[in-house]
Design brief:
Blueprint (H helix, E strand, L loop, with lengths): L31 H7 L4 H6 L15 H7 L4 H12 L5
Length: about 90
């Protein structure tokens, strides 16, 4: 192999936390994209809370904490609604 022929990974390697029963645990540091890709049923939650996260080009960068702050939603409410739609525990 020639020098410089190795390619760097475009997207960072993502790591998900798992509970005792191997279910992913939602956390405030997850991006909107991670939530939507892991749990497609959460689209309804983002739409019901009148956020523009679904289809937004910044969804890969915004954490749930940042989403709650920018839409002036209590973080606990956002996480609770997402938990209800996915039926997983929140860290």
């Amino acid at each position: 192999m020639r020098n410089g022929s190795l390619r760097k990974r475009k997207e960072p390697l993502r790591c998900f936390c798992y509970s005792w029963f191997m279910e992913p645990i939602l956390a405030a540091n997850w991006t909107a994209e991670q939530v939507l890709k892991t749990y497609p049923q959460t689209v309804a939650v983002f739409l019901a809370l009148k956020t523009d996260c679904v289809g937004c080009h910044l969804e890969r960068f915004c954490t749930l904490e940042e989403v709650a702050a920018s839409y002036e939603l209590p973080l606990e409410i956002l996480l609770e609604k997402l938990r209800e739609s996915t039926q997983v525990s929140i860290e």
